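Question (not urgent): is this output format expected?
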Amino acid sequence: MFRWRLPQAVCMLSACVCLLLAYEDDIEVNYADPFYNEITEGDTPEPTPTSAPCSSRDLTKWDKVFSMLENSQMRENMMLQYADDIIKVEMGSLRGEMLRFVAQYGGSCGVAVETAGRRMALQLEGRLKETMDRFKVKDQTSTAAGNSVGNSNHLEGTLQLLLTASRSQATRLAKLETSCFSPGAGIGRSSKTGFLFQDGRGAGLDEQEVTSQDVTSQDVTSQDVTSQGVSQDSVLAALQKTRMEQEEVLRSSRQRYLPAGCDMALLFPMRSRQIYTSVMPEVPLSVSSFTVCMWVKPTAVSNKTVLFSYGNRRNPYEIQLLLAQTSALFTIGGEAHLVEAKNVVNPSASEWIHLCGAWSSNQGLASLWAGGRKVASTPGVAEGHVLPDGGSLQLGQERNGCCSPPASIGSGVPGFERGFDHKIAFTGKMTGVNMWDRVLSEEEISQLASQEGQGCEHRGNVVAWGVTEMVPHAGAQFVN
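Got this back:
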């Protein structure tokens, strides 16, 4: 029995050992499987490049420009803020200094002047009373002695000295006021005319200045009075010269600007048969009376310079406003009806001048105005005439001149085939061109001719400056 069981037990032990070994192999295999990240020498993968975690694209030149602009703007803002802070601090400090200065010296000048004036008046009054007392004593003595001639001479001399003394006192008082109210006033200064201390005390003139010597001294003679008069005359002459110079500067500055409130002008740069300005009025020109006005600033004036011209096929010279050297001319219906005013234009001065021509067919009265005043008037000019409609109106030229037009211009407007003449062309500036279908009054023309006024705002009902179409040709152009 024991022998039979012993082999069975050995067999069972052997089976258990086999199972234990088999279990250990499985555990090892299972532990080996999870290591799938293990890198062996034979299976090493090729490294792949990776992008940088904070990579940025290359900056273009515009990005760099914008970055520079942002930096410059930031620096500019910082500099402006810094300058603003500095100015505020400096202004605050200056304001504090000025307030302390005014508080310390504000009332000292007035007190000093008043004190000095009072002392001068008292001293002058005392010396005058003393002199009058002396005069009474001498008068009584002279009367007793019968010397009336010497008395009168002494009286005249005394009055002359008193007059001189009063003038001297007035001059010194003026010097005191000037020195007190000058920019250096308030600071302690001393002179023979008066002085001020920093504590605000005022002192009058030196006692040696206002004494009886001012009244009785022989040094004050008529020669001093004469020298004072000459000095006053020289000062007056200098002031008049300064005033004339200021007026000249003001007049020249006004010439650089447009007159009468106008904001634009027509520029005719040179004489040319191609440079002119055509005007297209919106209403017919069939009128029996009219007024045409304009501001002109000629560069040069020939024997005939056209400013304003209107005509038709039958008569190219229905209306003409002309310049001739220093004269102004105005025609209606042709050169046979001429109104002329001499010495109203100064081309060398290059100044703005206001010209008007007015005409009425009822009495045939034509008048010419320059600078707001009537300079010529002629009756019986085209009496009963009516301006024909359908003509051509232009500035700076007249149609049907002396010469044939160039090939570049062509035959021109029908009825005006002969073209323009450069010799009569206007050169300069023109503004405020207006035309009315009536004769304006003297007051209206004076208002239009006021250089400092607003004449350009009063526009005509036939041609209105700034409203009616005006077409510059060739080199003519609008300027402001």
